[in-house]
Amino acid sequence: MEDDEQVPDDSETQEETNDEVEDETGGEGSQTPQPATAPVRSIQISTHQLQQILARGGGFERLLAQLGAQIQRGGRGADDDDEVDDDYGYGHYRRRRRQRTSFHGDRYPPIPSETGQKLMASGTFGANDHSQRTACGYRLTDETQRKRKRLATRILDRELGLESRGRSKALNGLMSQDMIPKTKADLVVHFQKRCFSGQFSEDGSFFFACGQDFKVRMYDTSNPYDWKYYKTVDYMGGSWTLTDASLSPDNKLLAYSSIANRVCLANTEQGDQSEPLYLDFRDTSREVRSRHHHSHVGIWSLRFSGDGTEIVAGTNVNSVCVYDLETRKTILMIPGHEADVNAVCFGDRMSPHILYSGSDDTTLKVWDRRSLASMRPAGMFLGHTEGLTYIDSKGDGRYVISNGKDQTCKLWDLRKMINTDEGEKIYAERPPAEFDYRYPPYDTENHIPHPNDCSLVTFRGHSVLSTLIRCHFSPAGSTDSRYIYTGSYDGKVYIYNLDGTQAGEPIDVYSATKNSRPNDSMDYSGHNYGGGNGEWDTIVRDCSWHPSAPLIAATAWNGPSHSWGTCTVHTWNDDADVDELGDVEESANADGRVFEHASSLGASPMGARVTPQLQFHRNFYQRRNPPTTSARSMAAQGGFLSSLLGRRAATQQEEEDEEDEEVDEDDEDYEDETEEDDV
Fold first, then answer.
1. Residue 194 in contact with residue 530, Cβ under 8 Å?
2. Which CB contacts under 8 angstroms, 24+ apart, belong to 27-32?
């Protein structure tokens, strides 16, 4: 039935039945006893639920099973009172309150993961330090091993070449993977709107940041420690925000999207002032238009192919699109999911044949474009119990990771995927995802693991709430492909080893940015902006590890009610408190003058706070105190208050005199004293 259809209440139905029985038997005076009428129970089910049930295998059997379960629960269905209605975005959604479920066993896989430890030992994800014994075979002490892990010691061992050539190569990898960036920010770029994504190019010479103001800012990062702004491109006619962006392999083109059917294609060359080209991702073929009625396509995710000739996109119409840049049209639309496709990517950088897609329907599907006659996936990854927010491929055609609203990140192996027939059967028997991540927190104590989880490793500790938070493989050049890292709702960047353990303390973007701009709902241009309750809060939505330097750029929502955005640059500093140029927290640098007169960002102390154009602004360094009132102002306010109270007391006295003209003199004196006290 329709959601707004009126359904008679059980009690009303029962009363009408009793009235009919009384009329037929002559009312209460009838001598013939009547059997008790069984209570009538109504079953309520939403249109969306009905469509989901019938769209899966075993439609009517599943429908009857769910209705039977509702009868056992007392007829409580999709429209019950335990749901909270909320209008958000472009549709009407409902939050469901989960009931506690009984479950015996581990709700999450153990950490550390044995499979992850084997992967770390295999050498596929970075080098391993096997030199833990002396030349005589004695085991090194913990203190000696700690000293040998120092960067200076590893460089000395490599340069002396005391061991084999393979050991020298391993030392290069060990040095790079030990250089994990820390919390202190070298640079804080402030945006007037939320920052949704930001990534380095594959060669590290370019960085872009996408904002909710429908602008993409481009930065020259050929020197990763001295950024230079050079260009901004816009998206005209966007909806809500920019959702994603992707660089072509040669860094010459940037594709970026919104919740609309157009993708902008902008030239990234410095000095180029040409307008972006708009690409229509709608499939205008008659067959697709009549079958799916996709008059409006919103894009959540997009990626360039390895050869730069195609763009794959995930949409809000449950489909995966492939756009050909040469013919300027959509050449493939795969209606392969039952909910929004939040993330897509190619499986191999050098081949456009294998595609991955992650959806709110909890599945990660594998598509082989060479065998799509039936529009069915080549296989599926099952394991998440809630929708997926992001996926990232290692680029080797084998490994892929995904972030999920069940508060986990999972590592998958293409060789372990479930075949399509079995996967669709398992999926049809699973309950639909229910958690609305806009209403944290997630109840981990009520989490039930997927019985057919085929993932290799599960990473947990971060929070995937409020927005589509992203995860990535760490690059080979700067980390030896050692880690998985992700943003988080709690304002941190989490870095995981392949066995699920954390590789040191998370990067705390919240601490690095707190109070780094006036926290009084005023932007740096002096206009009222944002609002909020004054509490600084941070969500790290995306993060990018530089491919050749120990540096992470984190893009986040910041400020009161997450109204603003930041891009922070965090570097490895060998546990030093400050660099040789000092820190923004030092009293000598607190007023910002040293940053204003610095020749470049690279020549300024740590913690420079700048505008999106990387320009100095004094307001970022002013610590505003609560407004104080001078003595003269206090005296003026006190005189005005006394005058106001005096007039009020006089008016009250006149009214009392009119009501009672025979008040005793003692009473009048008492009233006068009271009025004086009030004044």
1. no
2. none
